[in-house]
Design a protein that fits this description.
The chain is α+β, with helices and mostly antiparallel strands and 277 residues long. The chain folds into 2 domains: 150 residues, Alpha-D-Glucose-1,6-Bisphosphate, Chain A, domain 4; 107 residues, 2-Layer Sandwich (60s Ribosomal Protein L30, Chain: A). Helix 3 packs across helix 5. The longest helix has 21 residues. The chain is globular. It starts with 11 loop residues before the first strand and ends with a strand.
C-alpha cells in the first residue's frame, strides 16, 4: 500500500443505530470540502455521482451496476463544513492543527449494518487521502485494497455491537461459471433456515459474487443467477419472498481472498447471506 495510506483507524459504533469514522488530513478544510462536493472530484475517491445539487433539499444520483441509480436528497448543506446525504451519511469538517479533521456519521441503513459496506467506506477514506495528495484515479484504483484487509475487523465489530455474538455472514460457494447450488450448500442454507425460523421478524440479505474470467455484463448476470438459486431454495423451504433481500450483484469487485490460485477463485465464487438484525 502507498506510504501515505498506512493507518487503520477503524470506525466505532456510537450505538446500535450509529457508526462514526474520524480521519485527519494534512490539508485545509476548503480543500477537503471541494473533494466532498465537486462531482468531478468525488467520483475519483468515493462513488460515481451523476447528479449533485449542492443545497438543502438538493437531489443527487449515484450510478449503480446494470444502469440503475441510487437517489436521494441533501438534508444538510453548510459550506464548507457539513454535507448530509439523505440523513444517512453525514460529513462534518473541522479545522485542526495539522489541517482538517473529518467526522463521518453513518446511520443504520434499511438493510442493516453490512461489514462489507463499512469496510468499503474505510477504503474510500484512504482513497480520499490519496486524491488530496494529487494521486490519479488510475493509481488509486490499483493501490487501495484496504477494504479486504479490514473486512474481518468490521465483521467482528458488527458481531459485537449488533448481532449479540451471532454469525454475521453465511456463505455458499459455486463451481466455475455455474449458478447451480453445489453439494456443500445445503448444510449452510439449513443453518440460515434455522436462524430465520428462530427469528421470524428478521430478513436475510443475499449478495452474489463472481470470480470467473468473463465480461462485466456476464459476471453480473452470473452473480444474480446465483442469488436466484439461493432464493429458490429458501422459498421452497417456506421462507416468504418478502423476507429475502437481494443486492444487484457484485460481479468480481469484492474478492475476499486473492484470486491467483484456484482455491482463491473457488472461495470468491459465492453468495453471502446476511441476517438483518
Amino acid at each position: 500500500m502507498n506510504d501515505s495510506v498506512k493507518r487503520l483507524e477503524l470506525a466505532e459504533f456510537v450505538d446500535g443505530e450509529t457508526v462514526r469514522f474520524v480521519r485527519d488530513y494534512p490539508h485545509p478544510v476548503e480543500r477537503v470540502w471541494n473533494a466532498l462536493t465537486r462531482p468531478a472530484e468525488i467520483r475519483v475517491w468515493f462513488v460515481p455521482f451523476t447528479k449533485l445539487e449542492t443545497c438543502v433539499g438538493g437531489n443527487y444520483a449515484i450510478a449503480a451496476p446494470g444502469g440503475n441509480a441510487f437517489t436521494g436528497t441533501l438534508t444538510e448543506f453548510e459550506p464548507p463544513r457539513v454535507i448530509n446525504f439523505n440523513g444517512l451519511t453525514r460529513f462534518e469538517l473541522f479545522e485542526s492543527e495539522g489541517g482538517c479533521r473529518m467526522v463521518v456519521t453513518l446511520k443504520r441503513w434499511p438493510n442493516g449494518w453490512s461489514p462489507l459496506q463499512l469496510a468499503g467506506f474505510h477504503a474510500q477514506f484512504d482513497q480520499l487521502e490519496l486524491h488530496l495528495n494529487g494521486t490519479s484515479k488510475e493509481t488509486i484504483e490499483k493501490t487501495v485494497d484496504t477494504w479486504r484487509h479490514v473486512f474481518p475487523a468490521y465483521e467482528l465489530l458488527v458481531q459485537r455491537n449488533v448481532t449479540a455474538g451471532r454469525k454475521v455472514h453465511h456463505r455458499v460457494h459455486f463451481g466455475p461459471n455455474l449458478s447451480a447450488l453445489s453439494d456443500g450448500s445445503e448444510p449452510v442454507l439449513d443453518q440460515v433456515l434455522r436462524v430465520l425460523r428462530e427469528n421470524p421478524g428478521i430478513k436475510i440479505e443475499l449478495d452474489g459474487h463472481c470470480d470467473d474470467p468473463c465480461s462485466m455484463e456476464q459476471s453480473v448476470k452470473l452473480a444474480r443467477d446465483r442469488m436466484a438459486a439461493v432464493s429458490r431454495y429458501l422459498e421452497a423451504q417456506g421462507v416468504a419472498a418478502d423476507r429475502i433481500m437481494t443486492i444487484g450483484g457484485s460481479n468480481n469487485l469484492h474478492r475476499l481472498v486473492p484470486s491467483d490460485t484456484e482455491e482463491g477463485r473457488a472461495f470468491n465464487r459465492r453468495v453471502d447471506l446476511r441476517p438483518i438484525y
